[in-house]
Write a structure and sequence with these properties.
The protein contains 7 helices and 8 strands, in the order αβαβαββαααββββα. It is an alpha+beta fold.
């Protein structure tokens, strides 16, 4: 009798242990599945730096930010002038030839430069050749293969000029625009001297005119009036929008450029 009772207790014990083991294995499998399906970013600590996220002005150079062209391939909707090479003298020659064109088809026209083997000339090569100075604090932000000269036909039938430089597209950089604005404000005193060859390519300035005091103001865009040779009046206008920084030598051209960029994006 006692033997029979002992067997019953033993079998009950085995059943309880088996059920407990089965429940343990089932719960463990659920945890493993949930962990596998959880996105990686949710497991990141708050102090972890995400890939492509720049810190202050020290943007990582070993990673390609999302959206940058990082390529010398030619872009659509841009008219190219072709240089024999990316050497300074060849780029200067090609730039001079592009200035001779006056029969532009549109109110705003996008111009860039490439070598004859269809490789985009970078912003660094272009600016160094023409001795244009882009504030060096912007360098880490900019996509060097994504820039354009702009030529606008104004209401008087004359041509106005500008320059559009474009940012790399960072996945997570909420303060980028404000940091660029701060750099642009600091750059303002020398903006004429640094950019006159692209904003006023057909104007010959004296050293005194290039070093005139610039007083930028807030209007529809940030702007300053300037004195051109023979006491003529002109202006420099700049604006940040979408992922672009636009510089022009007239308010009308800035309006045209801003409208065109916003319609594209």
């Amino acid at each position: 009798m006692n033997t029979k009772k002992g067997l019953i207790i033993f079998f009950i014990f085995l059943i309880v242990v088996s059920l407990a083991l089965a429940i343990y294995l089932y719960v463990s499998s659920l945890k493993k599945t949930t962990k596998t399906q959880t996105p990686a970013l949710e497991n990141s600590s708050n102090n972890e730096t995400l890939p492509n996220k720049p810190n202050a002005f020290n943007i990582p150079t070993d990673k390609t930010p999302e959206g940058t062209s990082s390529s010398q391939n030619l872009r659509k909707n841009t008219e190219y002038f072709f240089s024999d090479s990316n050497k300074k003298e060849d780029i200067n020659k090609t730039f001079g030839e592009s200035l001779k064109k006056t029969d532009y088809p549109n109110n705003i026209n996008w111009i860039s430069y490439a070598t004859k083997d269809n490789k985009q000339i970078s912003l660094n090569e272009f600016s160094a050749s023409l001795e244009i100075k882009i504030d060096s604090r912007l360098n880490n932000f900019l996509d060097s293969y994504n820039y354009d000269r702009i030529v606008c036909k104004n209401s008087s039938g004359n041509l106005d000029y500008g320059l559009v430089i474009n940012n790399k597209l960072f996945r997570d950089y909420p303060t980028l625009n404000q940091e660029e604005i701060n750099i642009l404000r600091a750059w303002e005193p020398t903006m004429l001297k640094d950019l006159y060859k692209v904003l006023f390519p057909d104007t010959t300035f004296t050293d005194a005119e290039l070093n005139q005091t610039l007083t930028f103001k807030n209007g529809t865009y940030r702007y300053t009036d300037i004195t051109l040779p023979d006491n003529k009046k002109g202006s420099i206008n700049y604006h940040t929008l979408v992922d672009s920084i636009v510089f022009t030598n007239s308010l009308e051209c800035m309006n045209q450029a801003s409208e065109a960029i916003e319609s594209i994006d």
